[in-house]
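Annotators were shown the component list below and the corresponding predicted structure, then asked to write short factual statements about the assembly.
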Amino acid sequence: MDTIEALISEDTGSAPALEPLAMVALDAGRMLMESGASANSVDEIVAQVARGLGADRVDLRIGYASLAITIGIGANGITRMREVGHLGVNQRLDQELWHLAERVAQGKLTTAQTRAELSRLAAKTPRHAAWVMALAVGLACAAFGRLLKVDWLGTGPVFLAAAIGQLVRRELLTRHVNVFICASLVSFLASLLGGLGAHWAGSGKIDMAMIASILLLVPGVPSVNALSDILEGHPTLGSARAVTVAVILIFVAAGLWFGQVLLAHLI
Amino acid sequence: MNIDPVFLLHQTLCGALAAAGFGVLFNIGFRSLPWCAASGALALAVRTYCLGLGWNLEAASFAAALTVGAAVQVLRARADISQNALDVVGCIPMVPGSFAAKAILGMFALTSTSTTDASETLITAVQFALRVTFTVGAIGTGLAIPTLLLRVRVTR
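Structure shown to annotators:
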């Protein structure tokens, strides 16, 4: 992803404030999209930032892979587009962006200061350690397992399988492995480990333990966002999210299927 | 009505644990995790209670999402966490991931040449797929309604 500075041209022509303003507002929107925000949130924050920096008119088009904005100040106007990267989930960054937008709306920051703040947030917003995430995901999937009526003997293996799956997923995504391939690989590994563990532990719910072990891969936020986007007047983005969710689920199920086939040969 | 209080407590605790765990995965700060747990607990408590009343999964999920969405609207000023994060994380334990996996596995099974009961396999897979669609639809709609109502009230 290009830095925001590289995308702003030196020659700003007849409307000197418009270009950096549009790009800063777009960058705030891009970061929100990549943090898992719904379309309405992106719309709201981008408008808040742009108006706080002096825009009179703001029109935003939100696509799955790009954002386009038209900014107007007086008689001048400009339209710019920005590519959006992988749509992950990062609620702490999302929250920081909301706080930043409030400060911008109150007129406390200039365009340059807002740009610097965005760069700082992108670089400095903390993330939980890998082992903390693995532990939390393991506990969450074990709880899911109990909700799916996995017996106590199968709950421990689900915890371990999901935690290992999360560690492997993080490692694969760090190495920029395709998200769909990653989903299949992790699904295969976690379901196999969950199934084998449940079998060795003497659980009577091996199938459900295998499914509970892969629930870390179910794209819950995008699936809820897909519907809320459609309901809130963004059917194009909502449909794109829904298609992506469906394809991820197919890859997850394929991994689970391979896990089930291999487990049947092993036990 | 036949609701075992121990079962209700079990489901509520599991909902809290699942929501808090996914809160960490979604990079929510430690100070906000109790709010996530409370959101998940509320969702599962309402859903379990409604299922105990004899409602189907979709209706119970809708009622739970609506309750969580409304509660988040009321409490969001107290929790230093975005509304979107809090209500979505709370409803994550209700997303029917296992049904989705079973639906797709059923579709895979249909392509197998050894399938003996193809029509039964197809119907089961379609049933799971429809339940996933309707349940996710119910959750999304339940969460959206309080937000949409508030927006109408504010703009008037």
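Statements collected:
1. Chain B touches chain A through 47 residues (CB under 8 Å).
2. The mean pLDDT of chain B is 85.
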